[in-house]
Design goal:
Number of strands: 14
Distance between the termini: 45 Å
Strand content: 15-25%
Helix content: 25-40%
Order of helices and strands: EHEHEHEHEHEEHEHEHEHEHEHEHE
Shape: elongated
Oligomer: single chain
Radius of gyration: 25 Å
Strand order of the largest sheet: 1-2-3-4-5-6-7-8-9-10-11-12-13-14
Structural class: alpha/beta
Number of helices: 12
């Protein structure tokens, strides 16, 4: 790890000598975190030090462009590349990407609203080798370039920017997600984005390759996506027999489709079902339907279950569910907490009982004994 300690002029010569010493004494480094203004690749011994580099994380705002150009000449076998704090189309970084022969895993943390077009194009030219792509903003690269990554196995997209300022970018991203062909996709992770319909389309194209889907949004308190949650559950149920982990949002109207999912996806190990809508009927044990489905139709492989507390559950349904879990080894049981707290002391007593019996291994439902 080569990381800038500070930037005081009086320390610069000392730091330079220290870095030169590292570079001259190290051979065939495999992993490098490059976060210093020191031009590491220009120091004596850089060829021997960095020619076998396999994994590189570069904080671009700290790194000299000439040094990146030289690293492109030295290092052509990168397998993993993480780019952080990029704020423009960095020529040296583009050269580095272009030089790689077998780039497979890429993580992009950019600091601008509009993506770096030329850098995105250079990555798209590696679309036949890249199988892991993580975008920490919806505007990291031009959304149309997504269609170039034809061999993706793992796709993660985060919307970490101000959502109110990226509405156009989100719409464009949704458009290209809908037409992208990721036939080898195994893992799909979406954070702070509303695109159930587009994800359903992706799932239908990837079919039995899908092993894991994780969807998270901190403010799903709207009806606008309700009609599409059913589409995603149906797509998973009909196309993903090998899925092992699922985390998504549903409404009570979708409970019936969870039955089909459990019957068709018999390798499912972990499921997390959160509430999409903020509306709650406090006088109705609506969650009993979901617990009944989980009780009757869960595969024996399912040993990690998390459900929303917004769906009110009766004590009897709670007990019947845990009683059905005796046939499995042990289970993890989680409750997604909300403003409406329907998990009472009676519910907690049931959980404690089955923890004592060894049916439940872990839970966040019981904080005190």
């Amino acid at each position: 790890m080569f990381k800038e300690i500070n930037n005081n002029t009086q320390d610069n010569l000392l730091k330079q000598e220290i870095y030169k010493l590292f570079v001259s004494q190290c051979e065939n480094i495999k992993t490098l975190l490059w976060s210093t203004l020191q031009p590491l690749s220009l120091f004596p011994g850089a060829q021997t030090c960095f020619s076998q580099l396999y994994r590189l994380c570069v904080e671009v705002d700290f790194v000299n462009s000439d040094a990146l150009d030289e690293m492109a000449r030295i290092c052509k076998g990168l397998n993993e590349l993480t780019i952080r704090y990029c704020s423009y189309d960095h020529p040296g970084l583009i050269s580095l990407i272009n030089a790689q022969k077998n780039l497979k895993r890429v993580w992009l943390h950019f600091t601008i609203k509009k993506g770096c077009k030329e850098l995105g194009k250079s990555l798209a030219r590696k679309g036949d080798t890249i199988d892991v792509l993580t975008l920490y903003s919806v505007s990291v690269i031009t959304p149309s370039l997504l269609t170039s990554f034809i061999n993706l196995k793992y796709l993660s997209i985060y919307n970490k920017t101000n959502k109110e300022n990226v509405e156009d970018e989100v719409k464009e991203l949704q458009q290209y997600l809908a037409i992208s062909e990721f036939s080898k996709l195994q893992s799909l992770n979406i954070y702070e984005l509303s695109c159930f319909k587009e994800l359903a389309t992706l799932v239908e194209k990837a079919k039995e390759n899908i092993l894991q889907i994780f969807i998270y949004n901190s403010d799903y308190n709207t009806n606008k996506d309700a009609e599409n949650t059913e589409m995603l559950i149906k797509a998973i149920s009909n196309n993903c027999p090998n899925i092992k982990q699922l985390s998504t949002y549903i409404e009570p109207k979708d409970f019936i489709h969870i039955k089909s999912l459990l019957l068709n996806c018999r390798s499912l190990r972990k499921i997390r079902l959160d509430n999409l809508n903020s509306f709650v009927n406090e006088n109705d044990n609506i969650g009993d339907e979901l617990l009944d489905i989980l009780t009757k139709f869960s595969p024996k492989s399912l040993n990690d279950v998390t459900i929303s507390e917004v769906w009110k559950y009766s004590i009897d349904a709670f007990e019947q569910f845990f009683e059905s879990c005796r046939e499995r080894t042990t289970i993890n049981f989680g409750i997604i907490h909300d403003d409406k707290y329907f998990i009472t002391e009676d519910h907690k007593s049931i959980v404690r009982k089955y923890m004592n019996k060894g049916v439940i291994e872990w839970t966040n439902c019981v904080l005190t004994s």
